[in-house]
Structure formats: C-alpha cells, structure tokens
Write a structure and sequence with these properties.
binds magnesium ion; binds 4-amino-1,4-dioxobutan-2-aminium adenosine-5'-monophosphate; 31% helix; OB fold (Dihydrolipoamide Acetyltransferase, E2P); 8-stranded mixed beta sheet; BirA Bifunctional Protein, domain 2
C-alpha cells in the first residue's frame, strides 16, 4: 500500500509522495507551512525557500485552499505535531486548483455549514466525528461476531410497523401501501428463531416532527435479538456492548478525541455494570427532586438528564408502564401493569441511546395486544406464527448509532454525527 498520512510514521527519514488537499496555509518570505489532509489524517508540510525550486516555493505560497496536490517530502518526527510527524517538502505537483472555497477558516453559522455539508465533512472536527462513527461500527461488528451473533439484514420496505403508527413514512409499493422501516426488530425476532443470536445494522426512518438535538428523520440502528435470553441477561449484554465500544474508541481514536477536545475521563467511566432503576423508583426520585411528573407519564429530556447526572454513568430505567410502551413487550409476571423493558440513558444530557425489552412469547397474549393496538391480523400474521412453532423466551434491543456517536464525541447535536443528516427541514445536500 502507498504511504498515507495515517501510516506515515512507518516511513520516518524516507522520502514519500502523498496525494492530498491543502486545508490551510501560512507563509513568510522564507518559509511556507502547508496544512495537508489526505482523508486518512492531517499533517503539516514545511517548505523552506532555500530547499526547493523557486517555482515550488511560489506554488506553496499561492496555492488555494482545497487544491489537490501530489506532495513529495521527507518524513520527520516532531513532538509538537498532534500526529507526531511533519513533512519536509521537496516538491509539489498541482493536480487541480480549487476555486474560492466557501468554508474558510473563519466561523460560519450552522445553516451555512449544513448547506455545504458535502464540503464540511472534510474539516478536521467533522472528519474526527465520522471516523469515531466508523470505529463504533467496527467495534460493533467485532463485539457481536466475538459473541457468536449472526448479522441478518431486515427489509427497509415493510408492511408493518414496530413502534406505533404516528411517525411512519408512507409510500406506495405498486398497488399496496408500504412504510420505510422504523425498526427491524420484528424481522429480527424471526431471525433469532433461525440463528439464535442475531444483530442488524441499518437505516431506520421516523417522520418525527420533533426538532431537537437528539432526533433525526433517518438514523441508523444496531438491533440485536437473542433466543433463550430473558430481560436481566439482555441488560448484561447491553452494558458489555456499550463498554466495549467506549473502550475501542478510547484505544483507537486518540487523535480524533484530541482534535475534538473530548474529556477522555468521561469515556473511561463507561464500564459495566451500569446502575439500574425501575421506572417507579425514577418517578419517586424525580418527585423528590421537585419535578412535576406522575406515574404513567413518559419522561422528557430534562427528566432523563437529571437521572443520568445523578448517577454520572449510563443508567438503565426498567419496568415502564405497559401503556406507554410498544405492543410486543412482555409483562412482568410479578406486576402486569409494567413490562420487562429497559431504556439506557446516557450521561451528559445525551438521553436514551438504547430501547429494549423481553418480547411476548405467548400467542394468546399477543393476539390480545393486536386487538388493543388495532393491528391487522393479516399484516402481522407472520409475527404471530413465530409464537406457534417453538416459541421461546427472547429479548432484544436497539442502539441508536447517532446518539451514541454524539455522546462519545461530546458533540452537541446528532446532525453532525451522520454524513448527510435528514432533518425536519433538510433534504439537501
Ligand atoms: O426506543 P426505540 O424506538 O426502540 C425500537 O425501535 C426497538 N424496536 C428496538 C429493539 O428493541 N430492537 O429506538 C431505539 C433507539 C433509541 O433508544 C434511540 O437511541 C434511537 O433508537 N432513536 C433515534 N435516534 C435518532 N433520531 C430519532 N428520531 C430516533 N428515534 C429513536
Ligand atoms: Mg425508546
């Protein structure tokens, strides 16, 4: 493989040529400093007038931001550089001279940057966030593979809805009605009966009218589903999984975390076990703190933030009232008003990153829920059939990738954690 900025440390003292772009520059009469990026990383190139041809020096002074270059130079160790290396440039070949680049080193408003998202992803912070996103995806595959899960891909176009009908994206499927998937869960339950432990990773869609820092219209979810696993064991797998991604990000994304100024001690605190609190305990605690909330109501962002701040670790809230949760959740045998479910609330105000539960495995009870929730027996017949042929206790959960990336990177808003966000008022670019 050709040397890249990421692997340049393997070439100290050697002369290398790198295809790159100019991200910034400064120069005086005798020396020019070029900030170069090649997509794998960032490095400073130094061009002393005395060491290069007159043409090369003039080019290094006049070259425009984001021009594409082949840069040749000798790799040098440099303790002051974030990457630890610097390039002592001997030659520059201009591949393409960029027009006046709209994103200058000065400050820009978010709407402007979002309009230029196709270019903004080149900048150092955005690059770091999306590389951490990649690391979380990589670690996810590694974790579930190591634990014996099979990756199964549920469909995107569906005739059924897992999470209620209020925020469905409707479309025509020839003559039938169809929806974009809100969650692959129901299909993953079928897959768990075929492969025991499975996980999916794919886009999910919710026509949410909420304009908050936690909501996207299109977001990516990791959905494991496990046969013969009950509520408590599922929580243990969830906390191990989340701890595993935090450790992987800490280990493999040092430069990115530094570029973002992320407080690493916050990530070091993420290790299993996580505290657990029942919904009822959470309501009592919130009331003690002076919040006006009654048993039976769902939590809002301020409630979740308060609970997570109190624990200063991700916290599981378990056993929610059945009336505010999805139709497929299994009632607690000790109290039929609540279900065997848990939301995992991230610290620092990032909110719910996982929703999960043990699923109803009894055919008669599921039929009852269909009626209460007005679900058509036709569209959901296949899901009921899973309870007719070797039904077993099973549990699963969904982790929202963008909220997890936001939390791990310390980025305020989920819109910066996905390359091209789909937001309430944004379909461009
Ligand atoms: O809690 P939710 O709705 O759970 C499900 O969809 C289950 N069927 C998952 C399962 O058990 N297989 O969504 C799961 C997670 C949330 O905890 C949150 O992290 C994320 O998906 N999420 C969103 N992220 C960004 N934008 C949105 N609009 C989101 N809605 C949910
Ligand atoms: Mg939820």
């Amino acid at each position: 493989m050709k040397p890249t900025i990421e692997t340049i440390g393997q070439h100290v003292g050697e002369e290398v040529t790198i295809g790159c772009w100019l991200s910034n520059k400064r120069s005086s009469g005798k020396i020019a400093f070029l900030q170069l990026r090649d997509g794998t990383g960032f490095i400073q190139g130094v061009v002393p007038k005395s060491a290069v041809s007159e043409d090369t020096f003039q080019l290094s002074k006049s070259v425009t931001q984001e021009s594409a270059l082949y840069v040749t130079g000798t790799v040098q160790e440099d303790e002051r550089a974030p990457s630890g290396y610097e390039l002592s440039i001997s030659g520059i070949e201009l591949i393409h001279e960029a027009s006046e680049y709209p994103i200058t080193p000065k400050e820009h408003g978010t709407e402007f940057l979002m309009d230029h998202r196709h270019l903004w992803i080149r900048s150092k912070n955005q690059h770091a966030v999306l590389r951490i996103r990649h690391e979380i995806i990589r670690a996810t595959y590694e974790f579930f593979d190591k634990e014996g899960f099979t990756k199964v891909d549920p469909p995107i176009l569906t005739g059924s809805s897992a999470e209620g009908t209020t925020n469905l994206f409707h479309t025509k499927y020839f003559d039938e009605d169809a929806y974009l998937s809100q969650s692959g869960q129901l299909y993953m339950e079928a897959a768990a009966m075929a492969f025991n432990r499975v996980f999916s990773f794919g886009p999910t869609f919710r026509a949410e009218k909420s304009k908050t820092r936690r909501h996207l219209i299109e977001f990516w979810m990791i959905e494991p589903e496990m046969a013969f696993v009950e509520h408590e064991e599922s929580l243990e797998i969830q906390e191990e999984y989340v701890s595993y991604i935090a450790a992987s990000v800490l280990k493999n994304c040092q430069l990115e975390l530094e570029a973002l100024g992320r407080d690493k001690s916050k990530l070091e605190q993420i290790h299993a076990p996580f505290p657990r609190m029942t919904y009822t305990e959470a309501i009592d605690w919130l009331k003690e703190q002076g919040y006006e909330i009654e048993w039976g109501e769902d939590f809002g962002a301020p409630h979740e933030t308060a609970i997570a701040e109190y624990h200063n670790k991700p916290v599981f809230i378990t056993h929610y009232p059945k009336d505010i949760k999805a139709f497929y959740m299994k009632p607690d045998p000790e109290n039929e008003d609540v279900v065997l479910c848990a939301d995992l609330i991230a610290p620092e105000g990032y909110g719910e990153i996982i929703g999960g539960s043990q699923r109803i495995d009894d055919e008669a009870l599921l039929r009852e829920r269909y009626q209460e929730h007005d679900l058509s027996e036709d569209a959901y017949r296949w899901y009921l059939e899973l309870r007719q042929y070797g039904s077993v206790p099973h549990s699963g959960f969904g982790l929202g990738l963008e909220r997890t990336v936001a939390w791990m990177t310390g980025i305020e808003h989920v819109r910066e954690t996905i390359p091209f966000p789909r937001l309430l008022n944004r379909l461009y670019p």
